[in-house]
Hints:
alpha/beta, Rossmann fold, 2 domains, 6-stranded mixed beta sheet, 4-stranded antiparallel beta sheet, binds adenosine-5'-triphosphate
Amino acid sequence: MSVIDVTGLTKHYGEVRAVRGIDFTVEEGEVFGFLGPNGAGKTTTIRTMLGLLNPTAGRATVLGADSTDEPAMIEAKRSIGYLPANPAFDDGATGREILDLHGSIKGEQRREELLELFEPPLDREVRDYSSGNRQKLGVVQAFMHDPELVIMDEPTSGLDPLMQQRFNEFVRAEREQGVTVFFSSHVLSEVRRVCDRVAILRDGELVTTEAIESLLDRSGKFVRARIAGHVESDAFNGDTVHGFERTLIEDRAEELLAATDFESDADVVTEVRFTYTGDINDLVTDLASYSFVDLDVEEAPLEEVFMRFYGPGEPSERTARGQNGDAAPAGGDGNA
Ligand SMILES: Nc1ncnc2c1ncn2[C@@H]1O[C@H](COP(=O)(O)OP(=O)(O)OP(=O)(O)O)[C@@H](O)[C@H]1O
């Protein structure tokens, strides 16, 4: 039996069709990322799965309990941790009081261990907490009763980078212990560090459910390079180059070149940007003939992945505009 089983789930708010006929399962011990841009329907799905909203059609079960079966859900929730988006705590209570109450209802076997790791303040009223501290308290609350399944809605929002990293390491360690984790995010680079599989939601519909490795293989790298001199419009092409853009930087060329270690008689710098889905070694070979002012190679942002695989048109249809106001022609074939 799957830990989460969602079938044909649909949720309308009046005229708003927030979620439409989505299907997915999450298996025991998986870390499952639920990805989508703002308004895609992530929170609606999560709240419906937990019985906080009634589905318009379809069904969801968590730990075998149907989300609309109240007694079954009460029982299941003993073994579920939940971190909502913007957790709404009693603002007049201190963090300690909130954890005491939660502990008395659901248990607190792991409270001390989690407090040492996430260090939320405990003796101040929650109304005085920063959003990051609220989130840290929420994470402690979600895990402190040692649940089998943890469902979190954008858990790292508000956390600083160090705390995000600690959270990611913690989730990975939980997976090793067999805990099933489901969490939503709108940042692909965040879920890739911890998830086994992801589902991508857009406009209330599921566009794909797949292993994170296969998604990343297909989504490729985003390359942004500033190169001394001119770059031909067809310098980077072929079916592994997507959305090629080229911008001449004339105004600041001298300043940029002066900051490099190499001698150059170039009087312009060309910025190129594209997404690359081929073998990274071939990319390095292609780049080797240029002198770089700087080079960034990073994961393609989620929006880029959406546009290329699931959306209309290609980023290459955009026209890059140079700082001197000239439009540089877009090259590349733009094949997806
Ligand atoms: N209570 C509500 N009444 C009417 N429409 C709603 C309500 N809650 C959400 N919606 C709409 O449903 C759609 C999905 O919203 P939802 O909050 O589930 O998306 P989300 O993916 O969680 O977004 P975000 O990342 O911004 O939190 C949006 O169009 C939103 O405006």
